[in-house]
């Protein structure tokens, strides 16, 4: 099969379709990137043009079967365990102790975490490992960790909990030996970690219910959205964070320098890439300034 060119008119139709389905905005400068990512699907389906592939996506008979492959091709899923050392230092040394302190005296101790756009699960599982290691009397806690993504392929990978050497290369050696079983060149998570995370399909364009999460990760995804989609996503995510809960933004943080996005988020900046939702003020009380 000859190398097929992605024409500008074809790119425009596909980019619009991607935006409608995912909220991801692709400028025309990404035409080569999109062509390279979709070329494998053309080969697999024996199609001679990107127009033919677009038509296939518009056909109700083939849409549902092809959509998961399409979404996997156009989304970026590069990640690894304990990505960003400072973040995980915050989780272990500040956030977990805060959770423990806030639950003192309560009959039922619970904590809820959402890894949004979780890709193949490394972020959600890293959180599970941190909670296992740092949460005293772990068995007495009701821990809920949810990982979500729009790609069925990466969700399947996440549920399997098996990773290559790249994904675990930056992990503390003690945690690697404690929570993984090595099988040749693969590392399989032990069931007590793998089964502590639930993965599900979710599009950030839509509200996440039920919410009330103590910690939400939204890392390295806002950069793919245009301004209107950023607003929509931040509104949905902000509603999902519990009062006093934290939101973690990726290294490319568009909120800090945009008053509109900052207002929509409605949270206090609490450090690099870190936001905290204000606690609810009890009725009848006044907050002095």
Explain this structure to me?
With 289 residues, the protein is α/β, with parallel strands linked by helices. It folds into two domains: 8-74, Chemotaxis Receptor Methyltransferase Cher, domain 1 (Orthogonal Bundle), CATH 1.10.155.10; 85-276, Vaccinia Virus protein VP39 (Rossmann fold, 3-Layer(aba) Sandwich), CATH 3.40.50. 45% of the residues lie in helices and 18% in strands. The chain contains twelve helices and ten strands.
Summarize the structure.
The chain has 289 residues and is α/β, with parallel strands linked by helices. Helices cover 45% and strands 18% of the residues. The N and C termini lie far apart (69 Å).
Return the CATH topology of the largest domain: Rossmann fold
Number of domains: 2
Q: Any idea what the CATH architecture of the largest domain is?
A: 3-Layer(aba) Sandwich
Succession of helices and strands: HHHHHEHEHEHHEEHEEHEHEE
Side by side, the strands of the main sheet go: 6-2-1-7-8-10-9
**Total beta strand runs:** 10
Number of alpha- plus pi-helical segments = 12
- Taken as a percent bin, the fraction of beta residues is 15-25%
Runs in which pLDDT lies below 50 for 5 or more consecutive residues are 283-289
């Amino acid at each position: 099969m000859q190398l097929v060119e992605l024409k500008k008119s074809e790119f425009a139709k596909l980019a619009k379709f991607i935006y409608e389905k995912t909220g991801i905005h692709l400028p025309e400068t990404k035409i080569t990137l999109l062509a390279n990512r979709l070329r494998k699907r053309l080969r697999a389906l024996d199609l001679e043009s990107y127009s033919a592939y677009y038509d296939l996506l518009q056909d109700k008979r083939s849409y549902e079967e092809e959509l998961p492959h399409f979404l996997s091709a156009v989304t970026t899923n590069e990640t690894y365990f304990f990505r960003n050392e400072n973040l995980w230092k915050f989780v272990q040394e500040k956030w977990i102790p805060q959770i423990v302190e806030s639950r003192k005296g309560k009959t039922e101790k619970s904590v809820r975490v959402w890894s949004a756009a979780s890709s193949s699960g490394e972020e959600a599982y890293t959180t599970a490992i941190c909670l296992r290691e740092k949460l005293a009397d772990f068995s007495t806690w009701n821990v809920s960790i949810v990982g979500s993504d729009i790609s069925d392929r990466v969700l399947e990978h996440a549920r399997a909990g098996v990773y290559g050497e790249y994904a675990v290369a930056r992990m503390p050696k003690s945690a690697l030996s404690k929570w993984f079983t090595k099988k040749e060149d693969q590392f399989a998570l032990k069931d007590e970690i793998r089964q502590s995370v639930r993965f599900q399909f979710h599009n950030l364009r839509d509200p996440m219910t039920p919410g009330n999460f103590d910690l939400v990760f939204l890392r390295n995804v806002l950069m793919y959205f245009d301004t209107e989609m950023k607003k929509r996503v931040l509104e949905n995510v902000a509603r999902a964070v519990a009062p006093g809960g934290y939101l973690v933004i990726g290294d490319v943080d568009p909120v800090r320098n945009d008053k509109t996005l900052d207002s929509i988020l409605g949270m206090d900046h609490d450090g690099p890439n870190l936001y905290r939702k204000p606690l609810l003020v009890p009725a009848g009380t006044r907050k002095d300034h």
